[in-house]
């Protein structure tokens, strides 16, 4: 089989055949594009418009000389066309088709040839338009569209490659699928929506006052029914060709609609909201999951670059968004509670939204977030439903680890997936103690995601000495402990954030912490509550450092959570000489909160005490920047955990600071940073939100512009970073480049 093609014969010059002809000619994929159409006017138009090189009105010579034959005819006509071309087919000729159902095309080939020829490679371009005819041919129709090839197990491999290359030359992305799967998937994603559009328009058109209805039909109706203008004959054929799969999908949809109808009849708000809130986020979610990118960014083709110039003083009062750790926990505990939990101050970031989506996938109705307000209809400890597929947790380590603990105790199986960064992070640190409790949980070969959890295991309490200082591990075990027989005890080697413990108490759960051992007994019920989430100290940290290093600054960051298990940044900055005061202290749902007031004073280098590492763990990227701005050599030890975050944060900070002219020496986990004058530079974000924001702060005191590449990840924890930074007086702007064009 030759892998080159000289002549392509396209049988059927409709929209698809015509567009393919035009694209192949434009890309010079072959020397000659020959067209055939029963309708001689169409054929003549194809020649006149320059869409084909040659037209033929009888098959014999065109088929004999073709290297590739594309059947671009209605699926129902496939058998007749194959029969007609059979006498002239040459052994080397590769045949393909463009039909939107594949099972029947295979049957047609069997009927004509006895068995499917090895060089017949069925295909289906997922592209189209409600327009038809060769005049509508568009050579860009397939660009960035998918084409599914469904070769049989014994199909010729080089023939498959040739057809794949043909489609790729038109700009399409080529995939392969088994025939049955193709027909099932298409029934759900293409055939059902078309039938719904036809049926809706037909039903409304039959109403007596249909003219009125259509006159006032708004955009929603038009969007939904656009495809009802598609070719009726083609859709008639599709329905017959893919009957079983289409009927299954209609039944599935009818059942869904019937249950929505029931909810409306019963005035069952929770069920109605369940359908609407899940559907609202589902499209976005699946796009993210398929592209392996972050969760809620709508413009994932945009490359975001930050530009920062040295600022004047930072002044005034700012507020930063809600605490990420508490936002995750509020969703988890609200979902497990009995009753309705209202949250205010919820962080609407990629990570916390990943947790929201996971619980929606497990049947929990969650309204919002809307301007920080979220309402969760708790389902109780045993009310979660099996999710319809893997739970996709984007970039969020907290979601994956906390959920591992919770899901290990459920009756159903789950699979947890993450993006590229999360898929590299260690998950055995939660899997291993959960196994000790009796969980059935597997991680990948290198101990990371995907995490597979088999449900239906009765867990037993353990006494666990944590080898790493990790609030995520502790929290996972506390959640599992809610279900495990006995009293689960977790001993910490260092202080880690205790938001889970504090928040569980808000939900009425009793637990104790004594001599760094946290104990929780199972059999307790969580009762819904209302929660106010304070501003995130980890986000405030960027402005604390920025104000501390920019002469003349006087900045207040309002209502920041200053829980001592999180406030290491304040201690470290004070030790370095920063002028920092806490004002208006208060308590919100058991969490200490205060306004943080920072005024500029020169910083001096220190040796950071190791016991402050775990209580400032996420702030180290920006602490590196404070050290770069301080006089002298700052020493850090025991920060190895930084290597297991969204990036290797030691490496990321060292490389970036070196580019800015700062001497950073790393020996194992010991780091020496010599303060100095920072230069402008191009910096890589390492796709890490905290690294990005830390270098934005470094840019405020650099001599020349700092440019940070790939910054969209700030949405992981702080989507409004740019706006807040500008408000504080930082000269930062973002440049967006469309990488798809
Ligand atoms: O429990 C939490 O919410 C978090 C704990 C920390 O991780 P480790 O538990 O891995 O230290 C921290 O780095 C992360 O940003 C949030
Ligand atoms: C490490 C972080 O988060 P997570 O572990 O949830 O991904 C972080 O926000 O810095």
From TrEMBL:
GO-annotated cellular components: cytoplasm
Described purpose of this protein according to its UniProt entry: Catalyzes the transfer of the enolpyruvyl moiety of phosphoenolpyruvate (PEP) to the 5-hydroxyl of shikimate-3-phosphate (S3P) to produce enolpyruvyl shikimate-3-phosphate and inorganic phosphate.
Residues of the active site: 618 (proton acceptor)
Superkingdom as given in the UniProt entry: Bacteria
The family this protein is said to belong to: Belongs to the EPSP synthase family. Belongs to the prephenate/arogenate dehydrogenase family.
Coiled-coil positions: none
Residue numbers binding 3-phosphoshikimate: 324-325, 329, 470, 472, 618, 645
Subunit structure: Monomer.
Molecular-function annotations in GO: 3-phosphoshikimate 1-carboxyvinyltransferase activity; NAD+ binding; prephenate dehydrogenase (NAD+) activity; prephenate dehydrogenase (NADP+) activity
Catalytic reactions of this protein: prephenate + NAD(+) = 3-(4-hydroxyphenyl)pyruvate + CO2 + NADH; 3-phosphoshikimate + phosphoenolpyruvate = 5-O-(1-carboxyvinyl)-3-phosphoshikimate + phosphate
Top EC group: transferase
One of the protein's GO biological processes: tyrosine biosynthetic process
SUPFAM superfamilies registered for this protein in UniProt: 6-phosphogluconate dehydrogenase C-terminal domain-like, EPT/RTPC-like, NAD(P)-binding Rossmann-fold domains
EC number: 2.5.1.19
Organism: Neptunomonas japonica JAMM 1380
Key words, A-Z: Amino-acid biosynthesis, Aromatic amino acid biosynthesis, Cytoplasm, NAD, Oxidoreductase, Transferase, Tyrosine biosynthesis
InterPro entries reported in the protein's UniProt record: 6-PGluconate_DH-like_C_sf (IPR008927), Enolpyruvate_Tfrase_dom (IPR001986), Enolpyruvate_Tfrase_sf (IPR036968), EPSP_synthase (IPR006264), EPSP_synthase_CS (IPR023193), NAD(P)-bd_dom_sf (IPR036291), PDH_C (IPR046825), PDH_N (IPR046826)
Pathway(s) where this gene product acts: Amino-acid biosynthesis; L-tyrosine biosynthesis; (4-hydroxyphenyl)pyruvate from prephenate (NAD(+) route): step 1/1; Metabolic intermediate biosynthesis; chorismate biosynthesis; chorismate from D-erythrose 4-phosphate and phosphoenolpyruvate: step 6/7
Protein name: 3-phosphoshikimate 1-carboxyvinyltransferase
Main location: cytoplasm
Encoding gene, per UniProt annotation: aroA
The keyword Isomerase is annotated on this UniProt entry: no
Record: residues binding phosphoenolpyruvate: 324, 397, 425, 472, 649, 690
Cellular localisation: Cytoplasm
Segments forming domain Prephenate/arogenate dehydrogenase: 6-294
